[in-house]
Amino acid sequence: MQLPALRRMLLQASALATSKTASFDVARRRRQALESELAAAQAEEDVRAGSARSAEELVAALREQIERQQADAAPAGSSGAGGPVSARAAVGQAVREVLRTQEEAATKEIVEHVRQGMPDVNVKNVSPELTRLVQQGLLVRPRVGVYRLGGDWTIPGRG
């Protein structure tokens, strides 16, 4: 083969190699983007699974509270130990549910969650309950007015 023909072939081969390399780079970037999206979807699924478990625990706690109150059949207005303690447990479960779905929550967010999930609960009792949970070590207050799970309620992998 003559030199001009070899040079033409070299140019064509170089163009082909450049095109194939660019195509490979596009495929690799697409795979990396899909892997990143899959990881994000897995993380979201894990958070939602934890939230679903918390909601189921809250439902169970509320059912238990209702069953206890029905069994006790305490007269209206009595100051039996079942009422306030059970309401406290329900508020505690609601707080736990919020903090399982997000690492930290402000008092305002927690109060709003309780207001939406338990309209019969007096939200003025949420702040004292948060303080009690901090004193028990079940919640941590990293900053004023902000809470995260602590103690036995800590989610593995979160610190």
Give a description of the structure.
The chain is mainly alpha-helical and 159 residues long. Helix content is 70%, strand content 7%. The chain is built from four helices and three strands. The protein has a three-stranded antiparallel beta sheet. A hairpin with a 2-residue loop joins strand 2 (139-143) and strand 3 (146-149). Helix 2 (82-101) crosses helix 4. Mean pLDDT is 84; it is low at 74-83.
Fill in the keyword field for this structure.
single chain; 159 residues; mainly alpha; 3-stranded antiparallel beta sheet; 3 strands
Give a short summary of the structure:
The protein has four helices and three strands; from the N terminus they run ααβααββ. It has helices at 3-72, 82-101, 107-117, 126-135, and strands at 105-106, 139-143, 146-149.
Tell me the radius of gyration: 29 Å
* Helix/strand order, N-terminal first: HHEHHEE
What about the largest sheet? 3 strands, antiparallel
Strand order of the largest sheet: 1-3-2
Strand content: 5-15%
Distance from N terminus to C terminus (CA atoms, Å) equals: 70 Å
Assembly state here? single chain
**In total, how many beta strands?**
3
Overall SS class: mainly alpha
Counted by DSSP, the helix tally is 4
Task: Using the alpha-carbon principal axes, give the shape.
Answer: rod-shaped
Q: Outline the low-pLDDT stretches.
A: 74-83
Mean pLDDT: 84
Task: Work out the helicity level.
Answer: 55-70%
